[in-house]
From TrEMBL:
<feature type="domain" description="HalX">
    <location>
        <begin position="109"/>
        <end position="168"/>
    </location>
</feature>
<feature type="compositionally biased region" description="Basic and acidic residues">
    <location>
        <begin position="170"/>
        <end position="182"/>
    </location>
</feature>
<feature type="compositionally biased region" description="Basic residues">
    <location>
        <begin position="183"/>
        <end position="194"/>
    </location>
</feature>
<protein>
    <recommendedName>
        <fullName>HalX domain-containing protein</fullName>
    </recommendedName>
</protein>
<dbReference type="Pfam" id="PF08663">
    <property type="entry name" value="HalX"/>
</dbReference>
<dbReference type="InterPro" id="IPR013971">
    <property type="entry name" value="HalX_domain"/>
</dbReference>
<feature type="region of interest" description="Disordered">
    <location>
        <begin position="170"/>
        <end position="194"/>
    </location>
</feature>
Length: 194
């Protein structure tokens, strides 16, 4: 539809008998369900924002890495892998699943806003260093910087302790330039558009 932001997409890799509950629990999202890691690899595109992966269906961790290459956040359903962005300790609890998805999407919005803020500050600094009258352009950039900073403040105000740890873990994690660029292209979702 014109003028509307597409709903965030969640790819669930779990037992078929649990597929319906994710559709019910996550009505605000475009939920796609698959049964196997192979099917998930086929369904995983740059349009997927979050992957919920049943640990029993994870063979070697390649789906976690592949999800990151596509710019998705990956949460394990009752599993543990340091490469995953989160773990859903009780995947049978609706609130836990919903909160995990919302938290991962907030991280995505935070990263996108932080990237935008960096670019805006760099542009403003270049204009100021040029020593020519570009006061209108500097003023416009300053207004946008203020707006993005306010968005970041709003997002951070809702962060829990785990969210802060994840945000700074992401900053410390070395990723290839190609992976980082893909992630930046994908980070168009904002939780504020819901």
């Amino acid at each position: 539809m014109v003028g509307q932001t597409p709903r965030p997409s969640v790819l669930v890799v779990d037992d078929p008998d649990r597929h319906d509950r994710y559709q019910t629990w996550l009505p605000a999202y475009e939920v796609h369900t698959v049964e196997s890691e192979r099917a998930a690899a086929d369904a995983l595109t740059d349009d997927v924002h979050v992957v919920l992966l049943d640990d029993a269906r994870r063979r070697d961790g390649t789906l976690v890495e592949r999800g990151h290459r596509h710019g998705a956040r990956v949460a394990l359903l009752a599993g543990n892998d340091r490469r995953a962005d989160a773990t859903v300790p009780d995947p049978d609890d609706r609130e836990t699943v919903v909160n995990t998805v919302e938290s991962l999407l907030a991280h995505t919005a935070y990263d996108a806003d932080l990237d935008e803020l960096f670019v805006l500050c760099k542009r403003r600094a270049a204009l100021l260093a040029a020593n020519i009258d570009r006061s209108e352009a500097v003023a416009a950039l300053s207004r946008r910087i203020d707006a993005v900073t306010a968005e970041l403040d709003t997002t951070v105000a809702d962060f829990a302790t785990d969210d802060f740890q994840a945000a700074f873990r992401d900053v410390d994690s070395p990723r290839s330039d190609r992976e980082t660029e893909r992630g930046r292209r994908r980070k168009t979702y904002s939780h504020r558009t819901q």
